[in-house]
């Protein structure tokens, strides 16, 4: 990993010393570990239940699961918006 970072710095014309390259590699490794831990952290959200003024539902998932859920929801909404809810035009038009 060190040689890869040092090579990249040399290709870009950088004059990093060996110590600077090692520190940047360590910083990158720590950042990646922190990001992984952040994605595994549990996050709870509260939603209103449709049809009720007072009832709430609490949903808990990891941050990675929330990101995937939001992406799937956004993709599905885009699909429905772009193609319509019914993909069979004859059936949907009622005749």
Care to describe what's here?
This protein has helices at residues 2-11, 18-39, 63-83, 89-92; strands at residues 42-48, 56-62. It has 95 residues and is α+β, with helices and mostly antiparallel strands. A two-stranded antiparallel sheet has the order 1-2. The radius of gyration is 24 Å and the shape is elongated.
List the helices and strands and how they pair.
Elements: H1 2-11, H2 18-39, E1 42-48, E2 56-62, H3 63-83, H4 89-92
Antiparallel strand pairs: 1-2
Helix pairs in contact: 1-2
Give the gist of this structure.
The protein has 95 residues and is an alpha+beta fold. 60% of the residues lie in helices and 15% in strands.
Parts with pLDDT < 50 across at least 5 consecutive residues = none
Beta-strand content estimate? 5-15%
- Gyration radius (Cα, Å) is 24 Å
Principal-axis shape equals elongated
> What quaternary form is this?
single chain
Sheet with most strands: strand arrangement: 1-2
| DSSP strand tally | 2
**How many helical elements?**
4
Mean pLDDT across the residues is: 76
SS class: alpha+beta
SSE order: HHEEHH
Mind summarizing the main beta sheet?
Answer: 2 strands, antiparallel
The end-to-end span amounts to 65 Å
> Which percent bin holds the helix content?
55-70%
Give structural attributes:
4 helices, 95 residues, single chain, alpha+beta, elongated, two-stranded antiparallel sheet
């Amino acid at each position: 990993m060190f040689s890869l970072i040092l090579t990249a710095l040399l290709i870009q014309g950088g004059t990093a010393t060996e110590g600077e390259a090692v520190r940047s590699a360590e910083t990158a490794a720590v950042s990646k570990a922190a990001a992984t831990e952040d994605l595994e952290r549990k996050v709870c959200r509260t939603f209103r239940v449709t049809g009720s003024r007072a009832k709430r539902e609490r949903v808990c998932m990891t941050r990675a699961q929330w990101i995937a859920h939001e992406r799937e929801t956004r993709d599905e909404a885009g699909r429905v918006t772009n193609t319509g809810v019914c993909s069979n035009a004859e059936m949907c038009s009622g005749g």
